[in-house]
Amino acid sequence: MTAHDAAVMAALCELDHETDTLWVLGDICAGGVASMETALEQLAALRVPMHLITGNHDPVHPIFRGAQRHFANYSAVFASVQQVARTKIGGQGILLSHFPYAGTPDRLSRTEFDQYMLPDLGKWLLHGHTHTAERRSSKRSICVSLEAWDLRPASAEEVADEMSR
After folding, report:
1. In this predicted model, what pLDDT tens digit does every residue of 108-135 receive, in sequence order?
2. What pairing do the DSSP bridges indicate for beta strands 80-82 and 84-89?
3. Residues 101, 125: Cα–Cα separation, whole Å
4. What is the CA radius of gyration of the chain?
5. Backbone angles phi, psi at 156, to 5 degrees
6. Name one Pfam family in it (predicted).
7. Which residues of 68-96 are buried (b: 16+ CB within 10 A; e: fewer)?
């Protein structure tokens, strides 16, 4: 296990399986079947309920031809595997997606993910994808990539606090 993976898993092991639920907003691995298998094995050891919003590095994401052949592997670890979800934080409706809102500049200026990006129609969005330390990607979107939160998941309270800024 790399130092990065060890740090991430240490933070995840601190979650309380009785009170916490983990939403992973994509990219559990670096891509490829071997990386996927290692990541799923590590995550399967956690006792906290987990849900996955698929990311562009996850072989189960529909960006990949044949992605459905990996669905059973992911479903064995995650309570749900989907591309978009909704929840509430601080009484506000929140969208969950791997990608930032459409029109948010991608740091690599790529357009191949545009069809998977939601339009900003006024709701808050939590997303991953950017892998940067920046927590805000626009007025109503917050990046919850581990890189923006010291290699640990952001809590609902921290997200609510970020939304109030």
Report:
1. 567 888 899 999 999 999 999 988 888 9
2. unpaired
3. 8
4. 15
5. -60, -35
6. Metallophos_2
7. eebeebbeebbeebebebeeebeeeebbb
Give the DSSP H/E element, type plus range, for residue 142.
strand 141-143
Query: How many angstroms separate the Cα of 72 from the Cα of each of 61, 68, 155, 158?
Result: 13, 8, 28, 33
Residue 158 amino acid letter: E
CB atoms within 10 A of CB 38: 17
CB 52 within 8 A of CB 78: yes
Q: Report the alpha-carbon angle 136-79-44, nearest 5.
A: 90
